[in-house]
């Protein structure tokens, strides 16, 4: 991970579970992985409102926001988060993952499309390993021509 570590040094990321979601294990692992890869992690924890995500992204001048949702309510809260960021003029790279649909029967392509249309740069299926997100963040920062890349 040495190459990734140097890419993520000084990168600021906001992590949390959105809305009424109380699932904490996924965001904890994700936060650790990002921190171990060199990022400054602002961990908002569970039950984070869209407004709290926006406030943290703006105040912390975040390069990226990682939204987790496991309880199936992501579709309710995520549009407000994206709208709030746009309203605030903030443009962090946006990631969402966890268990994004209410029913496992919903085809994954439909779920991914829905969140991509909302404005998320990457939409992750259940059981995505944190290392995947770390690698993608490094790639996305390079693609944006970040000074950290
Ligand atoms: C443990 C658990 C609980 C615990 C949570 C304890 C806690 N404080 O964390 C308790 C018992 C409290 C609980 C409650 C509920 N739960 Co629950 N829970 C689970 C369970 C069994 C495991 C979740 C977990 O910790 N997994 C371990 C971590 C490591 O994995 P993970 O969360 O999937 O995250 C991984 C990846 O997805 C990734 N990841 C996660 N987020 C993100 C975000 C990004 C950007 C990226 C890149 C990656 C990423 O990182 C992790 C590492 O790989 C799952 C089923 C399952 N097997 O997944 C159900 C599950 C998530 N729960 C479910 C439900 C429905 C509920 C309840 C609504 C039940 C109820 N009727 O009350 C409530 C939620 C209440 C609320 N307000 O949120 C459903 C959700 C279904 C849906 N989405 O439609 C699931 C899928 C069970 C099921 N099959 O029905 N739950």
Automatic annotation (TrEMBL):
Assigned keywords, A-Z: Cobalamin, Cobalt, Isomerase, Metal-binding
GO molecular function per UniProt: cobalamin binding; isomerase activity; metal ion binding
Pfam families referenced in this protein's UniProt entry, alphabetically: B12-binding (PF02310)
Cofactor(s) needed by this chain: adenosylcob(III)alamin
UniProt entry tagged with the keyword Metal-binding: yes
Domain of life assignment: Bacteria
InterPro entries cross-referenced by the UniProt entry: Acid_CoA_mut_C (IPR006159), Cobalamin-bd (IPR006158), Cobalamin-bd_sf (IPR036724)
B12-binding domain residues: 10-148
Keyword DNA-binding annotated: no
Identification of the protein by name: Glutamate mutase sigma subunit
Species, as recorded: Acrocarpospora pleiomorpha
């Amino acid at each position: 991970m040495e190459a990734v570590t140097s890419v993520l040094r000084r990168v600021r990321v906001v992590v949390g579970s959105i809305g009424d979601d109380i699932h904490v294990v996924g965001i904890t692992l994700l936060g650790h992985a990002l921190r171990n890869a060199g990022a400054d992690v602002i961990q908002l924890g569970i039950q984070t409102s869209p407004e709290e995500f926006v406030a943290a992204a703006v105040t912390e001048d975040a390069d990226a926001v990682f939204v987790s949702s496991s309880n199936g309510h992501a579709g309710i809260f995520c549009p407000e988060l994206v709208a709030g960021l746009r309203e605030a003029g903030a443009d962090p790279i946006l990631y969402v993952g966890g268990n994004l649909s209410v029913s496992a029967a919903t085809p994954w392509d439909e779920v991914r499309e829905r969140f991509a249309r909302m404005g998320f740069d990457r939409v992750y299926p259940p059981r995505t390993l944190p290392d995947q997100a770390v690698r993608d963040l490094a790639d996305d920062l390079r693609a944006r021509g970040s000074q950290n890349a």
